[in-house]
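The freezer alarm interrupted the setup, so I double-checked each line after restarting. Inputs confirmed:
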Amino acid sequence: MQQSPLKTGSTIGILGGGQLGRMLSVAASRLGFKTHIFEPGANPPAGQVADHTTTAGYDDVAALEAFAQSVDVITYEFENVPTAALDALEAICPIRPGREALRISQDRLIEKEFLSGLGLNIAPYANVETAADMATAVETIGAPSILKTRRFGYDGKGQARLKSADDADAGFADMQGAPAVLEGFVQFSHEVSVIAARGTNGEVACFDPGENVHKDGILDTTTVPAKLTGAQRTDAILLAAKVLNALDYVGVMGVELFVTPNGLIVNEIAPRVHNSGHWTQQGCSVDQFEQHIRAVVGWPLGDGTRFADVVMENLIGDDMDRVDEIAREANASLHLYGKADVKPGRKMGHVNRVVPSS
Ligand code: AMP
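Predicted 3D structure, all chains:
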């Protein structure tokens, strides 16, 4: 679907006012666009750098309609926007990336069916809605395995690990009645992600895959270049492009992969800019935030070439105590999100440490 690009000075509506919305707003502003944030919570980090902020819930139809009328395109920083809110918005203004990407990524079961339907490798899985489903799932998938809620999981939340079949009852109880999937445990050597983008004219550009290390279920570091063979790097990019093309996608997507001796396994997709793509801010001339803005306004994409080796480290909770020290480092680029309260597990900022590529 080739459409004429939005003119600079147009307004981009962003659902969600966290750090991703904040960095999208800054990128939009650099290209001469205005932004309007829609966020239920007070004082959102993105509100500090946006032209307008609406503070209202996703069930406030009047506020959603007024927001949609005030913007030229709508995008989002998180995938769990309620369907009814999307219906109200889409009747007035286009949403990019489109609804299909949201429908699929909001539900792990639908996501897995979609990915395997494309012929991509994923962990073995089984749907678990009842105690009887759980018993069958443990028989077919076995242990070790991971039980994950189908909806609203993030940063390792809504997950229970089964070391053996004996953990099945406790794991099922942990889901508190929420529909879930049981996933076979993948024996991976490391995790990588591809940040991929697709424009309104169907062009696709991928950033170099990054290698991700998690701590306590939350992304800790992303390193580029990732440890991958040339063939694995090509595979990662081709499979990401396949996902984007299948969805007629417009925008940036994060595709998380496990690296195994038998190839790449897709863990999950996120239809938005992604924490593991923050390294692009110092590694590329067009970073993931500008890339997403370019895509949703119908501009040509940046090509994604990486000019530096980068290690991105998330600053979580008390890591903020180290900011002074990090600010003295020669090659460290700090990005702080303007969040007033430091809480354990809360993403407060990140730092990109840069080494020029040899
Ligand atoms: P997720 O919320 O699905 O991204 O899972 C969070 C983290 O748990 C992943 O980044 C992995 O480190 C780990 N994990 C998730 N699913 C699996 C799996 N099937 N096998 C092994 N590790 C997993």
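Quick read of the result. Residues 230-246 form the longest helix (17 residues).
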